[in-house]
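Q: Sequence in, structure out?
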Amino acid sequence: MAVVAVTLCMLVGIVFICEIARRATPKLLSGKRGDCGIYAAEIISTVQLCACSHELKLLSEDAPEIALSLTYVITVVHALTFRGATGNPTATLERYWCDSLSGACALRRTACQFAAAVAAGLAMRRAWAFGFSDLHARHERSGFTCASPIANVHLLEAVAVELACAFVVHAAATLTRGVEEKYRVHAIAAVITTVVYAGGSTTGAVFNPALAFSAQFPCSGSTFAQNSLVYWLGPVLGMACSLLLFNKDILAFTAKSTTHKDQNLHAVKKKKRN
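A: Exactly. Output:
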């Protein structure tokens, strides 16, 4: 329980520090270009996401059930605090494909996410070096090493798992856009927790290229090329499949509903004239 208590304190501390940084950013950048605040928020939120994920990944070695429960809680916290930031290159790419972002803006956001992911990994190593818990101390004595979860998995299976994870999460985000935000965050958090439970033993169920670059790429047992296929190509393909399938259906349904309403309105007006 002492290990869990330390992890809880770490998670609260990470969120608290990042929230202070988010609130201070508009004041510090008041004289700068307006879009600087957007990129700063993306960096801060990605640091929060990656740092919390590092801590939960470490906890899962000793208490996987508790780590899974905390995944749900921290996902809700992320959704409530990010304020428009995604912390995920595939989500940024989805916005670009949907014409919500320009190509230059999407590229800069993605660069911010990868830079923040690397910074979060380095920051967590520094934090673990203090040895706040036995788990941290053991991790420091091992030189912060980790084993790649895809080392003993067929490459195509690993790609399929990451593709499926990304597909399910992006589909859930798309299909719940009309749901009130206070309910939507819990629905998506439940989906993400389920996905992590289902695919965690195979690939870690990361479905986020920036987070994977921070948490999985440094691990031994897999090459850079293998990691790129699994943790970069897999999520991009999963997001693309979700976008092509569900967005197309939603747009078709919306167009059909609008046409039906227009026809009814035209019929009513015609009846009134008669």
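The chain has ten helices and no strands.
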